[in-house]
Amino acid sequence: MPTLAETYTEARLAELNARLEGQSPQDILSWAFAAFGERVTLACSFGGVSGMALLDMSVKLNPAVRVFYLDTDVLFPETYELEKRTAERYGIQPIAFRPLITLHEQAQKHGDALWSSDPDACCAIRKVEPNKRALEGMDAWISGLRRDQSETRSTVRPLDWDKKFGLVKVSPLASWADKDVWRYIMANDVPYNPLHDRGYPSIGCTHCTRAVKEGEDPRAGRWAGTDKDECGLHTEP
To answer: Residue 165: CB partners within 8 Å, gap ≥ 6?
Structure first.
């Protein structure tokens, strides 16, 4: 039996993307649920509206969808509250994956405020490693990546091979713009993080996220003052 990587070659992905490009996010999700069954999982940070839109779509299509999030121990109170409200609203139980070490242990090993001295190392400990565990046993994961979010995401396709985690990455909103996501959120009364209404278009951890100023890039509030623009989940290994 061929391996997952042998099945989803670039040629096969190109063929599938040619079919899926231009289809609705719901159509792409339906394809993923049919193709991967219980071995596909949805990542939702409870920080971005893309993830919330996908969660709403996914639960409507597949009430048993497995939803997970990365609890870095330094999420905003509003993020934790949204996770609770979402669980109650949709009757689901998102699975939290936490770092293997506490913030205190991290400080003892790497010094205080690792997120300031070496944000890549901090993300590796508190996000990338837990995400790897979250994807164990899965054949695919659903992400909220969109081409309009940043230059580094401008080539996102509905389906890509995730070299870092060794499975298929499904991005149903790849071709959507921010306005499309918000239109869906409002039309379907989808709960979202209230920090969006306070100048936070992109929400991560408390120490590495600030509100953006008028005219700034939507992701300017993430790791401000550094050249970092990705946490490492969606970058090449």
So the answer is: 131, 132, 135, 141
